[in-house]
Amino acid sequence: MPSPEILPLDELSDSELLEDFIPQQRVTINNKSALKKICNEIKIDVPWIETQVITSSEPASIKDINNDIERELALFVQLDPFVTLEGAIEGRKNVLASGVPFSRPDDYFAEMVKSDVHMSRIRQKLVDEEQSIKASEEARRQRELKKFERKGIEDTAIDDDFDIALEQAAADDRPKKRQNTGKNTKRISKNARYGFGGKKRHSKSNTATSSADISQFDSKKSKGFGRRASTANQKRKSTKKRPGKARRKSTRNKK
After folding, report:
1. Which of 57, 63, 105 is nearest to 85 (CA)?
2. Which keywords has UniProt assigned to this entry (predicted)?
3. Which neighbouring-strand residues pair with 23?
4. What string of DSSP letters covers 59-97?
């Protein structure tokens, strides 16, 4: 009978866990003394400025090193501002002790990684984006204003229609005046009392009937009218003409 196959447990999947296999769990060994000894053997004695390693004065306390959450939490604790400030102060002291300058001089101008042409394109792109945002905001504001204006116009039209309807309703409720189908009663009473004078315009003008009526013509009164007229014409014809200016002047000189 063949012996069962022995495989590590961490190399098996769920589908491979069969009854014929005998799982074997890998043993983790943490021999601190041996690790420290090997670390000291391979350690190279170099200046601190080459490594710039600073160990925190407060050790990390992790109960279960296999717990990822606890390890991450320990890292966050190491990033506490007070702990970080302590490490920064110690690192500054070590740098000063090493004699290596780390502060930038006042007259030092570092060369840009990007060229001026590239930075100008980036700057122009940022300006265009800002203008586009402003234009879109202005367009949205104008749309909102037009919406409010349209709503105000509609409200005004509704109010006007309501006022017109009220006026029409009030006019319908008023008693209608009696239409004057004839003459005024006062006028009729005065005409009955004083009489009607009649039409005054063209009252003295002749008409065809009055011109043809000769009943009031008196022939005796009209006698001699033609003779007097002819006599006056004869006298007018027999009158001497007035002499001219030269003759009148000579006549005056003779006198």
Report:
1. 57
2. Coiled coil, Nucleus, Ribosome biogenesis
3. 7
4. ----S-TT-HHHHHHHHHHHT-HHHHHHHHHHHHHHHHH
